[in-house]
Design goal:
Elements lengths: L13 H28 L3 H13 L6 H10 L18 H19 L17
């Protein structure tokens, strides 16, 4: 059988009440800190998925024999991780896109239209 309360005249002293209050507050703050840590970690989830997608889309590395074959036939071999037309290569399409983006941003900031052909891009550095 379940005995709920044998002595209904049990008195709770002030030190016991303070102990219960402190323990309860500590539990609440610990849970709040845990929740804030979980929210902080949520910003890293998109980066994890992007890294997985990047690994899937990476081309297979060329072996030494394949590189020698392509060099013998005169085919262009790009550096690993550098795709054709990438900013490292400095293709004219990439430069045109960057110039248009800069012109749009400048016209948005100043309020006056800025022509992209008036801009000169001297170098593109990846950070």
């Amino acid at each position: 059988m379940l005995i709920l309360l044998q002595d209904t005249t049990a008195e709770v002293t002030i030190p016991e009440a303070l102990l219960h209050t402190c323990i309860s507050m500590a539990i609440v703050f610990a849970v709040l800190i845990l929740i804030s840590f979980i929210i902080y970690l949520l910003k890293f989830i998109p980066a994890l998925f992007a890294a997985k997608e990047m690994k899937k889309n990476m081309p297979a590395p060329q072996g030494r024999e394949e590189a020698e074959k392509s060099a013998a036939t005169g085919a262009a071999v790009s550096a690993p991780g550098v795709a054709a037309g990438s900013p490292e290569e400095g293709g004219p399409q990439i430069i045109a896109v960057i110039a248009a983006a800069i012109a749009a941003q400048m016209s948005e900031e100043t309020g006056a239209p800025v022509a992209p052909d008036g801009l000169v891009i001297r170098s593109i550095r990846r950070r």
